[in-house]
Amino acid sequence: MSKHVTYDDAGEVEVTRGTASEEAPRLEGDPGLGCHSGTEMEKAARMAGQSELLDQYARDYPQGPHDKPQSMCPAFGSLRVGLRMKRVATVLSGSACCVYGLTFVSHFYGARRSVGYVPFNSETLVTGKLFEDIRDAVHELADPDRFDAVVVTNLCVPTASGVPLRLLPDEINGVRIVGIDVPGFGIPTHAEAKDVLAGAMLNYARAEAEAGPVARPEAGVSDLPTVALLGEMFPADPVMIDRMLAPMGLAAGPVVPCREWRELYAALDCGAVAAVHPFYTAAIREFEAAGRPVVGSAPVGRDGTAAWLSGIGEAFGISAEKVAEAQNAFLPAIEGALAAKPVRGTITLSGYEGSELLVARLLIESGAEVPYVGTACPKTPWSEADAEWLRAKGVTVKFRASLEDDCAAMEGVKPDLAIGTTPVVQKAKELGIPGLYYTNLISARPLMGPAGAGSLAEVVNAAIAGKERMDRMREFFEGVGHGDTAGIWEGDPNIREDFRALNVKKLEKQERARKAQEMI
């Protein structure tokens, strides 16, 4: 594309809500395969002509030791991106149970937006009628007075069956049509599913900008060269980043995933991209195709801020004096904030949001000992600087970490605090170790610059201080809900050791027979 995006004089457009989805009928003839049936579903998808799509996903999102989701359905990530955008309608195509779960969790997280659903059964799936139904639904939704775009998402079964969203028209009545496949057997985490939709939208917007003038964003565009920010972050972080860029004559651009379609143009119009969340492979591919350099890491902590500002300065060709001016304006404040709110204790950290390495850096500079960091996201060139810094501090960094990796680290280290996903925190509390849920209690806080320094100290120190209370609770409930006492009993359970001994003998006999069969 050209060096700059050209904007037309389109004015503001009133934001409206989408249409209400109808109650979906129960799926008939479900093949019985879901996102946890990875191998069989992938075979079916390849037989249906989806090999090119799956091969691209394998390159963008290489899998780790686990080949199936260990958290929520990955499609929640792309669904969330669409639902947070103004004037964008969202339609799901998948099994009724999957759609129910996704709409439930999206509204649990405050979507306040209707989700469209195109139901199907075995007949419409096999005959191709499902695609026709999707096409009809898209035509019905494509009202330019209400929507800028309609996003259609194939879940596992339609993807495995080869429902060809690529054959949908690119636009209807001036409304953009974006079709994506987000199968659980092809996208490892919901964080990476955000990238699937963000990349698809950037690809569409880049083609529009290359074709001619495009609509100016409602919030306008900066007169200064901008840095596009890649990855969802706390609302105060882009504001703080903008302040840190000001001494270098730069400004913070839009955050991708964006909140309105027109922001995609402004994001592509940047001078460089900050891969704050480094796993947005598809989005980065679009920025690189537009000729935009990418800078990894983020302005987190004293060391991270100094290195990041240097990297931004290099990307824009800014003099060392200007970079030093920006560093001198903020590094002392960051050092002071870190010293004012120290963290004391050993912490294991894990999650699936993609910002785990940044949080670990901030905790270490706050004084905490962090022997282990696990992230469900993959290793990328834009996370390497953070990983090297952490390893130099003696941290074990695990990319594509499984739940088993995170639990094993927590059980082995026995930290003062375990920060992680829900099952990790549950396991920690069963062991009497204080735990904090990463997504709701850690990633929902500012991390950047002086505002981020010390922002974690209060919640982390309070959790560590609760160890004595955890010990009292564990002692009080010792033995309850485990083994023979699991469940609800009106009296003591009737334990039959003779039955147990008989079952043990049966299992041993089956094992001997299995080994004998293997030797044949």
TrEMBL record:
Residues 73-463 form the Nitrogenase/oxidoreductase component domain. GO terms for cellular component: membrane. GO terms for molecular function: oxidoreductase activity, acting on iron-sulfur proteins as donors, NAD or NADP as acceptor. Keywords: Bacteriochlorophyll biosynthesis, Chlorophyll biosynthesis, Membrane, Oxidoreductase, Photosynthesis, Transmembrane, Transmembrane helix. Residues 1-38 are annotated as: Disordered. The chain crosses the membrane at residues 88-109. Pfam families: Oxidored_nitro. GO terms for biological process: bacteriochlorophyll biosynthetic process; photosynthesis. Pathway: Porphyrin-containing compound metabolism; bacteriochlorophyll biosynthesis. This is Chitin-binding protein. It comes from Roseovarius indicus. The lineage of its organism: Bacteria, Pseudomonadati, Pseudomonadota, Alphaproteobacteria, Rhodobacterales.
